[in-house]
């Protein structure tokens, strides 16, 4: 079974990485790092250039996390997905039948989250499996 | 689409002006209508609107596509209702102005002589500008092979229908005399006509114009900022412009840069004179004609290996685009000739002995060339890039333009 982690190197996802490593170690599960690289807003001219830039950012971010998780002794793989973060997590979650999706929260107000489309906010409402939200400061 | 930068301020201006007119009519407040005519209120409000729209672009929030669709429907329908009511009232002889009966001869492109035809065609290029977006999105649409082409045809048809019907309706309702008497005051003309034709319902049309202009402000900033990102990544402009905001995941530097240039341009032109702003739009038409012409030639050059494969290829990706380019270049030549006479511009003044649009167009062009040479002296990465060729399998339709590496795309 698998623990999914949405990772993008934000302060929230750093705390989420720690929690995900703990969970994966405790229940002896694999860890899969997911980075959704679809540009916000989706359509637009030159969107592929934007997506390529996000893919690069995702590759760098997940490489750091991969090192840390592997060092902690967790069997870890990385998935860069061409979808928005929440959709990416749900799609990979379905594909691997993940036990839990772990995401970091940035501590935004619910209103801001609803307005700007925060990933934890979206996941909590539409995900079809357990979601673990980890606050930035623990 | 960097040319769009020059128009952002004017769009915001129209959005604010018609927003004030619309609410003024709706609430029966003359103060709001007068505020729409007051540059001291309108210019700062437009600048604030550009900043707000830029901020929304940087936040990268998915502006509800459904809301946009509804707004576009309302806008097109209210324009068509306006055209229908105006035409009907003109035919009934019910217009308070000096109405004339529409005739088929109005649609004859050669009816008014050479100079009118060339500026009309240039206006056509300007009007069409942006409507080709459907084609630019071919990598993003579902069923990328057919949808963009159909969308382009459909949008061109809708464009033609609204432009022609509104133009006929306006001329029929108001008569040529009244229109040429008031030709210096475009916004005033449209506002007056809206009130005369639709009576107490004019606010619907005025607010549609306002929402259309405000939405266009945003949809002009967005692609321009993405062009900046793309150019920065290819090394054609400084790489700092290609920065992506880690949280919002949007190219924030590029977006703010677009806004800053747009605001400087808008305020600067406005300080020269309000007519200079209109002249800058004519200048824009020159630039658009130029890059459309380049696009046509680039198409034939990029696909050069495939031109001789079949008659169909030769006609559709060789002869067609190049003919289009030559027509646009011819048009550009005509327009440059016409605009070198200052009397043909909005402001009617001469800058350096020629019309302001020509000066602005050539000026923008020269700034670009200078920047290009300075940048070339700085770093050679972009210039060292060799021209690439298209993947033959994609051209032959054997595989899709964008592979789907993760299989997650619908």
> Would you count the extended β strands of chain A for me?
5
Q: Count of helical segments of chain B? A: 15
Count every helix of chain A, treating DSSP H or I runs of 4 or more residues as helices: 5
Q: So what's the CATH class of chain A?
A: Alpha Beta
Chain oligomer state? heterodimer
**Overall average residue pLDDT of chain A:** 83
Radius of gyration of chain B: 23 Å
Radius of gyration of chain A, whole Å = 14 Å
Q: Mind telling me which CATH architecture of chain A this is?
A: 3-Layer(aba) Sandwich
Q: What is the percent of helical residues of chain B?
A: over 70%
Largest sheet of chain B: none
Q: Approximately how much beta-strand content do the residues of chain B carry?
A: under 5%
The helix content of chain A is 40-55%
End-to-end CA span of chain B? 29 Å
Give a count of the beta strands of chain B, DSSP E runs of length 2 or more.
0
Strand content of chain A: 15-25%
Instruction: Detail the poorly predicted runs of chain A.
Output: none
Commentary on this structure:
The complex is a heterodimer of chains A (138) and B (410). Chain A is of the alpha/beta class and 138 residues long. Chain A contains five helices and five strands. Chain A has one domain: 3-Layer(aba) Sandwich (Rossmann fold). Chain A has a five-stranded parallel sheet, sandwiched between helices. Chain A starts with a strand and ends with a strand. The mean pLDDT of chain A is 83. With 410 residues, chain B is mostly helical. In chain B, helix 1 packs antiparallel against helix 2 and helix 5 crosses helix 12. Chain B contains 15 helices and no strands. The C terminus of chain B is likely disordered. The interface between A and B is medium-sized, with 30 and 33 residues.
